[in-house]
Amino acid sequence: MKEHEIIIIGGGLAGLTAAIHLSSEGKDVALFEMNPYPNHKVCGEYVSKEIEPYLNRLGVDLTTIGAVNITRFQISTVEGDLVETHLPLGGFGISRYAFDNFLFTHAKNLGVQFYFEKVIRTDFMDTGFLITTISGTYSSKIAVGAYGKRSVLDKKLERDFSFKKQSWLAVKAHYHCPDFPDDLVGLHNFEGGYGGLSKTESGAVNFCYLASYRTFKEYKDITEFNEKVVSSNPFLKKFLSESDLVFDNPLTIAQISFDEKESVVNHMLMCGDTAGLIHPLCGNGMAMAIHSAKIASEIILKFFKESNFNRFQLEQEYRKSWSKTFSRRLWYGRKLQGIILNKNMVTRGIRTVGKSDSLMKFIISKTHGELIQ
Is 211 inside any structural domain? Predict the structure, then answer.
């Protein structure tokens, strides 16, 4: 059995960031991820610049891999109403293909041990964890869950949301669209869903949308759904008609849960989407994942450094910090999604609130965080 001080399950943004932070402080970190890098993931691929100072402190500069500088936000309705505003902090457009691989390389250079295998069980044994994969068993003093929106582990850990049928699915693809502005992120609604558009470092435009399964199941495939539902929004219709698909086929993920989740489960600290998923309004799930990794890493380091800071205190402090940082943000995300999915409400909102730039910025600020160092 192999031993490590800290084991991280999941190699997305939260898991990789935590691995970098902890290993840069001299910790023995192992990370388990099912799929070797690089690979594409279903994601909005816009990340708020609130995380830029923190990433720079970790030695991660997204501009070195061509992250696109985004400063404008627009939102539209099926009726063709459109409003636009300047983003208070701005953000980066960057694919998960490039972003995750960049973090992976950095983490590997810092000495993080990577295991590309599936974790099938986690057990807490008084003073530490036993992590079981198909090929073996590993032990650690601390375990971090950063395996994303949904995993077989959630059922093993008896998390309530994992036993429910969820009504959301997401579709993502890259498109070649030369006329799409570099500095723009757009959010466009259609019946039963909404989608985001933004440029990535490759020059391709990422189009990722969330749709209710109830609406989607009425059509035979993604192509028909795009033609008959997504294209009901004139801005999305124009984009799809003027663009060429870069991927062989769009990527999809189903059974997406926006239910409230616990941030500590069976003594394991949960990060990123594993702890709570924000509705994809301007892509802030990426920033939240990175920020949650920072919170977890700092508390874990405190646990190792201070002999009188026990596991109970570690877990309580993480719960409190996570809730203080993200609870209101998630609440606003749920409320805003309800408005966006209501055809009449979003139209009235854009025709009234959309006329006030200060109100638009105020609403945007509620799903964004402050700069983190």
Answer: no
Of 268, 259, 275, the residue nearest 325 (C-alpha): 275
Query: Domain range holding 87?
Result: 2-165+256-365
pLDDT of 364 reads: 65
H-state helical runs in the chain = 13-24, 52-57, 96-109, 152-156, 213-216, 222-228, 234-242, 284-305, 311-340, 343-352, 357-365
CB 97 within 8 A of CB 201: no
Residues 6+ apart with CB under 8 A from 74: 82, 83, 84, 85, 184, 185, 186, 187
**What CATH code is carried by the domain that includes residue 270?**
3.50.50.60
Separation CA 293–CA 263 (nearest Å): 12
Distance from CA of residue 115 to its chain's centroid? 22
Radius of gyration of the chain (CA): 20
How far is residue 242's CA from residue 234's CA, in Å, rounded to a whole number?
Answer: 12
Predicted confidence band of residue 366 (pLDDT cuts 50, 70, 90): low
Gap between the Cα atoms of 334 and 340, Å rounded: 10
Q: Is the pLDDT reported for residue 283 higher than 60? A: no
Locate 187 and state its tokens: 């959010």
Q: Which two tokens stand for residue 136?
A: 């073996």
Give yes or no for a contact between 296 and 275, defined as CB atoms under 8 angstroms apart. Answer: no
Domain presence at residue 317: yes
The answer, yes or no, to whether residue 49 has pLDDT greater than 80, is yes
- Residue at 373 is within a domain: no
Residue 108 lies in a domain: yes
Tell me how far apart the alpha carbons of residues 331 and 278 are, in angstroms, rounded to a whole number: 9
* Total-model pTM: 0.93
Q: By C-alpha distance, which of 158, 114, 148, 150 is closest to 133?
A: 114
Contact of 129 with 272, CB cutoff 8 Å? no
Question: Is residue 78 within 8 Å of residue 211, measured between CB atoms?
Answer: no
d(CA 42, CA 175): 14
Backbone angles phi, psi at 308, to 5 degrees: -90, 5
* Residues 158-181: tens digit of each pLDDT: 998 888 888 889 999 999 999 999
Asked whether the beta carbons of 353 and 75 are under 8 A apart, the reply is: no
If one counts the domains in the chain, the total is: 1
